[in-house]
C-alpha cells in the first residue's frame, strides 16, 4: 500500500512523516504494543514513536520486524524514533544506551534519537546535574557511528534549545513537546521553526482524550457544540479535527492508540482542510493546560517548565 502521509523536511535534508504512531501507555496487556504497531503499519503509518522509558522497545521492534518480514514495508520506508532516558545522560552512556535500544528492537539503526528531557537523574532518582551539552556530545557520536540518522530533543524550553543550538556540532532537527488545542504554544512553535527545529506534537489529542478525574471541568472541548458542528461538517471526529489543526500549523503529530479503528482514524486527515476561521475556532480552546507537567521532576535544576 502506498502511504498517503505527507512528510516534513528536516534541517539535515532527511524527511519525516507528518503523522506517527505514539506508543506510550501506563498499562498494557502483553502483545498490545506489537499489535498496535502492526495495525499502524497496515493502516499506512510509516513513523513510530517510542522511548526506552516506555519499556516496549522489544514489542515495538517485533511489530516492525513482522511487517518487514511479511513484505508490507521495507526498513527504509519506516521512520523509527526512540529516546534516551534521564538516567543515561553522561556522555559515555549515550552510545551504549542506544545500542541497548537497538538490540531490543532488533534493528541496526533508528531514524531519530531524542534526549527525552533536559534534566538527568541518578540511580536514587535525584538530580544528577549532568549538563545536556555533555549528553549532546554522546548524541552526536550516535550519528557518527551510523546508529541514529538524526538526533533531536524533547521537552527543552526556549533557553535550553537556544543554548544547545549555540553549542553543538550536529544541530537538533526536532523538539518534541506537548501541543494540542488546549495548549497551543504559538510562541514556542514559532521559535522552533525560526531556528529550523521541527516542533513535534506529543499528547496531540490533549483534553479530548484525557480521562483523568483531575482534568474534569477543563475538558469542555469534549462537549463544546461549535466544535461538534465543525466535526460534523467534515464527517470527522473531534480527535481528527485536533490532529488536522496541528498538521495545518505545520506540526507533525504522534497520536497513540491501542484501538484498531482509532489507529486508522488518526491517520485519516488528508481529505479535508480547515478554513482560517475554523483554525481560529480550534485555537480558541487554548487554556495553556499541560496534560504532562512531569511534576515528579519539578525540583530538578533543568526542569523545563519552571517559568510557567
Ligand atoms: N516526549 C515526551 O515526553 C512524551 C510525553 C508524552 C507522550 N509522548 C509521545 O506522544 C504520544 C502521544 O501522546 P499521548 O499518548 O500522551 O496522548 P494522545 O495520543 O493525545 O492520546 C492518547 C489517548 O487517546 C485515546 N485516543 C486515541 N485516538 C483517539 C481518537 N481518535 N478518539 C478518542 N480517543 C482517542 C487513546 O485511547 P486508546 O489507546 O484506548 O485508543 C489514549 O487514551 C505518546 O504515546 C508518546 O509516544 C512523548
TrEMBL record:
Pfam families: Aldo_ket_red. The record marks 83 as: Lowers pKa of active site Tyr. InterPro entries: AKR, Aldo/ket_reductase_CS, NAD(P)_OxRdtase_dom_sf, NADP_OxRdtase_dom. Keywords: NADP, Oxidoreductase. Substrate binds at residue 116. Transmembrane segments: none annotated. GO terms for molecular function: oxidoreductase activity. The active site is at residue 54. Gene3D superfamilies: NADP-dependent oxidoreductase domain. Residues 27-286 form the NADP-dependent oxidoreductase domain. Belongs to the aldo/keto reductase family. PANTHER family: ALDO/KETO REDUCTASE. This is NADP-dependent oxidoreductase domain-containing protein. It comes from Mythimna separata.
Amino acid at each position: 500500500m502506498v502511504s498517503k502521509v505527507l512528510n516534513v523536511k528536516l534541517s539535515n535534508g532527511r524527511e519525516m512523516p507528518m503523522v506517527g504512531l505514539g506508543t506510550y501507555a501506563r498499562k498494557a496487556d502483553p502483545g498490545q504494543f506489537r499489535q498496535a504497531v502492526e495495525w499502524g503499519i497496515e493502516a499506512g503509518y510509516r513513523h513510530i514513536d517510542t522511548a526506552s522509558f516506555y519499556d516496549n522497545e522489544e514489542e515495538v521492534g517485533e511489530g516492525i520486524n513482522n511487517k518487514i518480514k511479511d513484505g508490507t514495508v521495507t526498513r527504509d520506508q519506516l521512520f523509527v524514533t526512540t529516546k534516551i532516558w534521564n538516567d543515561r545522560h553522561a556522555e559515555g552512556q549515550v552510545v551504549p544506551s542506544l545500542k541497548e535500544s537497538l538490540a531490543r528492537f532488533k534493528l541496526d539503526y533508528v531514524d531519530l534519537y531524542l534526549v527525552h528531557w533536559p534534566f538527568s537523574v541518578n540511580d536514587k532518582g535525584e538530580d544528577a546535574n549532568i549538563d545536556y551539552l555533555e549528553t549532546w556530545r554522546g548524541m552526536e557520536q550516535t550519528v557518527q557511528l551510523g546508529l541514529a540518522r538524526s538526533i533531536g530533543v524533547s521537552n527543552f524550553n526556549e533557553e535550553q534549545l537556544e543554548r544547545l543550538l549555540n553549542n553543538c556540532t550536529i544541530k537538533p532537527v526536532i523538539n518534541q513537546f506537548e501541543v494540542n488545542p488546549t495548549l497551543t504554544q504559538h510562541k514556542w512553535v514559532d521559535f522552533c521553526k525560526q531556528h529550523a527545529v521541527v516542533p513535534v506534537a506529543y499528547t496531540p489529542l490533549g483534553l479530548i482524550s484525557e480521562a483523568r478525574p483531575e482534568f474534569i471541568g477543563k475538558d469542555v472541548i469534549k462537549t463544546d457544540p461549535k466544535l461538534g458542528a465543525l466535526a460534523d461538517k467534515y464527517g470527522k471526529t473531534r480527535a481528527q479535527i485536533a490532529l488536522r489543526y496541528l498538521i495545518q500549523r505545520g506540526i507533525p503529530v504522534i497520536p497513540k492508540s491501542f484501538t484498531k479503528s482509532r489507529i486508522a482514524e488518526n491517520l485519516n486527515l488528508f481529505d479535508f482542510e480547515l478554513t482560517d476561521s475554523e483554525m481560529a475556532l480550534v485555537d480558541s480552546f487554548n487554556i495553556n493546560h499541560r496534560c504532562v507537567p512531569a511534576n515528579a521532576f519539578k525540583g530538578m535544576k533543568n526542569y523545563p517548565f519552571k517559568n510557567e
